[in-house]
Amino acid sequence: MLKRNLSEILSETLHLVIELAKADFGNIQIVDPNGHLRIFVHQGFPDWWIDYWNTVSAGQGACGTSIALGERVIVEDVAQSPIFVGTLALELQLKAGVRAVQSTPVLNQSGQVIAMLSTHYRSPHRPDAKTQEMLDMFAAVVSALIEQSFKERCSR
């Protein structure tokens, strides 16, 4: 992949997404061989937050809800969201300084979710339509990068 690894390229992509979306944090998760989302790159989160989300069962949080629904999930205020209220996840989001999150599924050419692109905000927030279009564009870029990386690995 142009003599650079997928992690470096996705880290740079995530940095750009966070900046353009005016977010405070972000991550890209990749679906592992067992069908679980695993955080591949992130920006702004403490290790304990990453550890929690890498071990939580499927279907939880904005990302799990996004996979279940097959579409982007926007949580304008985690403290008021049925996805988080009454859960340990809410406590950890607030402890990390997260008040809002959006998760955009990354689909392969067959329409299967292969990754998740999420941005997080320190205050209640809803990305506008233009930002959501930009997130969709970057999700397509992330998909192409992941698929190209897998093709290169398989051809070795």
Question: Key features?
Answer:
about 160 residues, alpha+beta, Beta-Lactamase, 5-stranded antiparallel β-sheet, 5 helices, about 20% strand, globular, GAF, GAF-like_dom_sf, GAF domain-containing protein
CATH superfamily: GAF domain
* Count of all domains: 1
Highest CATH level, the class: Alpha Beta
The biggest sheet amounts to:
5 strands, antiparallel
Helices and strands, in N-to-C order? Answer: HEEHHEHEEH
Helices, by number, come to 5
Structural class: alpha+beta
CATH topology: Beta-Lactamase
Rg: 15 Å
Oligomer: single chain
- What is the total tally of β strands? 5
Protein name: GAF domain-containing protein
Organism: Methylomonas rosea
Domain GAF: 5-156
InterPro entries: GAF, GAF-like_dom_sf
Describe this structure in words.
The chain has helices spanning 6-20, 47-55, 61-69, 88-96, 129-154; strands at 25-31, 37-43, 73-75, 100-107, 113-121. Strand 4 (100-107) and strand 5 form a beta hairpin. The protein has 156 residues and is an alpha+beta fold. The longest helix is centred in the last third of the chain and has 26 residues, at 129-154. It has a single domain, classed as 2-Layer Sandwich (Beta-Lactamase), CATH 3.30.450.40. The protein is globular, with a radius of gyration of 15 Å. Strands 2-1-5-4-3 form a five-stranded antiparallel β-sheet, with helices on both faces. Helix 1 (6-20) runs antiparallel to helix 5. The model has no long low-confidence stretch (mean pLDDT 92). It is built from five helices and five strands; from the N terminus they run αββααβαββα. Residues 5-156 form the GAF domain.
